[in-house]
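Example record

One chain of 80 residues, shown exactly as stored in the release files.
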Amino acid sequence: MEPFDVSEVYNADVSFTSNVDEIVMSGNVIEILNKHVPADSRADYRRFVEGVPLPKSKREKIIVLIKSLLKEHWSEDEDW
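Predicted structure tokens for this chain:
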């Protein structure tokens, strides 16, 4: 048995999370999210942005929230 090559397991082109991570780091997006993330999700959102590991269910919830907020509040015609 041979070890997996990283490219066999992880492909950045299809990785949903890394794409969101890159987008979240832009300044305009951070402003929008900081303004519109609800208080009950803010702690998990901050952990996500700062790279603190979250349980999968919380991480997925935050990603869905981020996509929803950006779709609603970001003026550029991005396909979220």
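Notes: Residues 56-73 form the longest helix (18 residues).
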